[in-house]
Amino acid sequence: MTTQPDPPPVRVLSIAGSDSGGGAGVQADIKTVSALGGYAMTAITALTAQNTLGVDAVQLAPPKLVQKQIKAVLEDIGVDAIKIGMLGDAVIVGAVADTLHGVSVPLVLDPVIIATSGACLLDEGAIDVMRDRLIPMARLVTPNKPEAEALTGQSITGVAGQRAAAEVILAMGARAVLVKGGHGDEDILVDFLLWEKGEAVFESKRINTRHTHGTGCTLASAISVFLAQNMSLVEAVRAARAYVRGAIKNAPGFGHGHGPLNHGWAIGETS
Predict the structure, then answer these.
(1) Domain extents for the chain?
(2) What amino acid positions are annotated as catalytic residues?
């Protein structure tokens, strides 16, 4: 009796900045994709000097180099999903949009505008280009509350505010929007998902911890893996939230500020 070989891992390309502290950005993306059984590839948009206490310096990559990194992956290895994080400025946002034109795999856009530490990582001009060029290409956009407020110009309070912001972003051309509720101090954390024909509310008890650096990157990467594995959107979001919660609960406790997650906590459970 012959056995069928295991299918190859799904291929996920992360287009994002590098985090020298290893908790967010492409480092978090690589760890997440690998832990969930995928094959991670990267196009690095920026080098940052940062740790759990904050971002000390940022050096953006030349836009043409960003494009060449993306093309190198697309033309040889191929992709099953794309996750986009920190882009830095309007020129890079436009360059990424140009390079991905016509690519049909699921694209998860995590609109990194403000770091956990409060540092601004995307200027207003770049936000305008993101609205016009990248959001219409996205299978899913995953802003937290401050990012959703920056994208929409609306103040967000409660689920009604999340829904209103999601409606505005959906009208920009995205196929779905997940407005995350992690920024706040409510005991129950609420993430609101909206797509053209429906909505879903995800609730969970807040984990009281300072170890939350890179949660947005990690969530978007996990969703990308699950979409590449042909999960439905709701299933992918639910599974990704469970993975992130496990990574927070099992955080290693490193650093003196917003510490990193334990991205590898689920390796044994998902193999």
Answers:
(1) 11-141+213-257
(2) 180, 212, 214-217
